[in-house]
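Support request from a user on the community tier.

User writes: "When I paste my structure tokens into the form, the page sometimes reloads and wipes my input. The last time it worked, I copied everything first. Here is what I submitted, just in case something in the input itself triggers the reload:"
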């Protein structure tokens, strides 16, 4: 069973990746065609371009922060798991 912080982190990471993959073709003036399963050229109106630009800016500025937090929590989680593993596998002293 996974812990709640790990599940929350996976949700944030999934949202971040989906926003990243949504914004990249959008900024290039492309749109994913579901029926033909390919990227087609598309002309966006001003409101759509402003929204896409704001989302891309948000994602690009948050990406270093998310990567640092991911590295930090992965390191802490790995160290904690190693500490628990070593505590279970080490010979116990009865005093």
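"...and here is what came back when it finally went through:"
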């Amino acid at each position: 069973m996974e812990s709640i912080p790990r599940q929350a982190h996976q949700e944030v990471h999934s949202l971040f990746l989906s926003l990243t993959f949504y914004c990249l073709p959008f900024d290039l003036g492309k749109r994913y065609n579901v029926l033909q399963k390919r990227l087609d050229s598309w002309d966006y109106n001003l409101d759509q371009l402003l929204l896409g630009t704001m989302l891309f800016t948000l994602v690009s500025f948050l990406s270093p922060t998310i990567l640092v937090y991911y590295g930090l929590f992965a390191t802490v989680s790995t160290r904690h798991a190693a500490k628990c593993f070593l505590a279970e596998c080490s010979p116990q002293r009865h005093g």
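Agent notes: The reload is a front-end session timeout and is unrelated to the input. The chain has one domain: 4-89. Strands lie at 30-33, 38-41. Escalated to web team.
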